[in-house]
Amino acid sequence: MWNRKSKWNLILFAAVVLLLISSIFFLWMKTNIEVRSVVEEQYQNQQLLLTRHIAGNIEQTLNERVSLLEVIAKKDTGVPDDNFESDLKSVYEIAGLFYVVEYVAENGTIVSGYPEDNVPIGFNLYDNKQSRAFEYVKNNGEVYITDPLRLMEGNYGSFIWVPVYEGNDFRGAFIAIIKESDLKDRYVIVSNSSSYAYLIDERGRILYEGNQKYMRGALYVDLFGSNASGLQEVIADQINGTEGNGKYFLLAENGTTYEERLVSYSPIEWYNQKWSLALTSPSSEVDRLIVSVYLKLFIVAVVSALFIVFVSSFVVIILFNWSKSLEQEVDEKTQELKMSNESLRAANKKLKELDRLKTEFLSVVSHELKTPLTAMRTSSEFLRESDECDISIRRKMLDIIIRNIDRQSRMVDDLLDISRIESRRMKFHKESVDIGKAVSCSLEMLSSNLNNKNMDIQVELPENLPRVCTDKDKLVQVFVNLLNNAVKFSKENGSIRISAQEEDDFVSISVSDDGIGMIQEELEKIFDKFYQIDSTSTRKVGGSGLGLSIVKGIIEGQGGSISANSEQGRGSTFVFTLNKVIYNEVSE
Amino acid sequence: MQAENIGGKILSLMEANPGITVKEIADQLLIPEDQVESTLASMSDTRQKVLIVDDEMDALMSLKVALEAEGYNVAEAKDGHEAIDKVNSEIPDVILLDLMIPGIDGFEVCRQLKSDSMYSHIPIIMLTARGEIDDKVEGIELGADDYVTKPFNLKELKARVKMVLRRQEV
Predict the structure, then answer these.
(1) Which residue of chain A is at minimal alpha-carbon distance from B79?
(2) A403: which chain B residues are within 8 Å (Cβ-Cβ)?
(3) Is the ipTM, as predicted for this complex, more than 0.95?
(4) Which residues contact A183 (CB under 8 A, 6 or more apart)?
(5) By the number of CB atoms within 10 A of the CB, which of A18, A315, A416, B25 ranks highest?
(6) pLDDT tens digits, A147-187
(7) The pTM is what?
(8) Which of residues 48-67 of B touch A (CB under 8 A)?
(9) Is A291 exposed, middle or buried (0-12, 13-18, 19+ CB in 10 A)?
(10) By C-alpha distance, which of B83, B63, B73, B55 is closest to B158?
(11) Calculated CA dihedral for residues A107, A112, A114, A117, nearest 10 degrees
């Protein structure tokens, strides 16, 4: 069905469709990436805000607690009698975060504190060689906060040193301890497993880490070693005390894939302690957020692709059908051409056949016309030359001449009839005719012929046979021709039967003989002009070969029909019909 | 053939018995008397014999009368088969052969006679109502000695017959 050209067209079409579909998927991917980057940015900003919030919260809490101590430390009234015990109690209770608050006198001895159970009263810093921080605050007059240190109880905690002045006089210092665990309890971020927080100090050491195990004082960077890339930059920023977002890649536990993590960090400034809080979460979190967007975009892309496929296949089907209908049309036209060719060929064949028939007709006519002329000429020439010939020979020759003149004129009449019939110029002077009269008239004309062969003629016409509407002379001619044939093809003493019967609007007349008859193939051709069943028989019986053609022409020219039946050796029957006289025609 | 044999037998009988009568011959050969007489008549006929082959009785009759008046012995045949038989029995000196005859047509009769060494010497004049060149050519090719178109001039026909006979004598 598809020729090579349309095959190429189809391939081209498919390429265009594929291009369209792939461009849709390209756009889909591109949109995904853009959406992802926007969402990621938003996500990071959110995370940063959260980080900043938490960091600010911690910073505020810690600074407030220290401020409480500073307030008492700056009392102008000097060291109260209870060595700040009641003040420290109030501070402890208000702060609610301290493990213990103590007062160290100028000589380095802890003189008071709250709660008493946790205060080693009388403990001298100088005696126990733990006076470095005390000396520091004494000399600088500023609050000093230590890194988390191991407490006597085994926990870790930060020591807050606040110098106490009376005016400009150094009067000792407050020590407050915030236990690491307390701080954690307060600020641990409850989150899902994939995001966690960590806290580092200004040297990059871990203060808090969500879910990793680490050595105290270890650098955060060392925690992952070479498994993390991009982390150093983040840590460096954090150490600088800046705030921001970052990304780093972490080798997953299976050791082959890298996990991208988004980190937001914010500094916490607590007097001399500069910490940095960071929230980190895997970038798959972003994907999780936009997965529905992905899905919707994917659906849109698939729907578009399906739409394109549908439309294009629709177009293909339309084109296919179009070409198919074109092909069909071409086929039909070809078929029509073939048929017209065939009919032309058939017409040509028919024309050739007609031409052949015409030639044959002319040849037969010329023969039929020349034969009597030959006899006449020979006879007359003989008569002219032989003056003294016998009277009987003379008469014989004259008879030949007369007979052939009759034959010639009959032939000419027949030819004229045939010519009229074929050109439909034969005129019928229709009148009401009595069949019986026409039969007896024709029998009279043929009486000598009939007598010669001693034929037995039976005329069986019903008494009430209606008259027929026909040309009387032509009807007689029909009878004469048919009877002539019957006589010609009958043996001596044969019988001929003429009968008629009324049928609906017409009268059917039959002429049958018991002569030699014919076979079926001959029967089909007997009405053809000049058809000679066998040249022998034609010659034997003598005849133009036009008789039956003329009969057929006369009968059919008046709207009747004629048919013949025959069996070889049993005789032939000719049946023809003529229209009955209708009442008003008779009255005319 | 039969007629010829009869002729030969009659001759041999007459040689053996010089006084034999027609009746005796007929009795001995078991044939009718008139046949013996006609055989004897034809054997004693010294005229040149023309065989006319034509299925048109009137044409045949008129030509026969005219040629007999001219002094020819005329035999007649109405179709191809009869023509061949007549040639066998009569041994004509010339044949006037119509082309359109029933049974075997004129061309075929001509072909058969001309291919038979016994009769190929007999001149044949074709007679036909057809006048097409093709027919003439075919007739001449088959060995016809002359060709006359119907209706012919009687004088001309007689002259042509005379001519082919003279040619034959030479």
Answers:
(1) A536
(2) 58
(3) no
(4) A58, A97
(5) B25
(6) 888 887 778 888 899 998 887 888 888 999 988 888 887 77
(7) 0.49
(8) 55-56, 58-59, 61-63, 65-66
(9) exposed
(10) B63
(11) 100
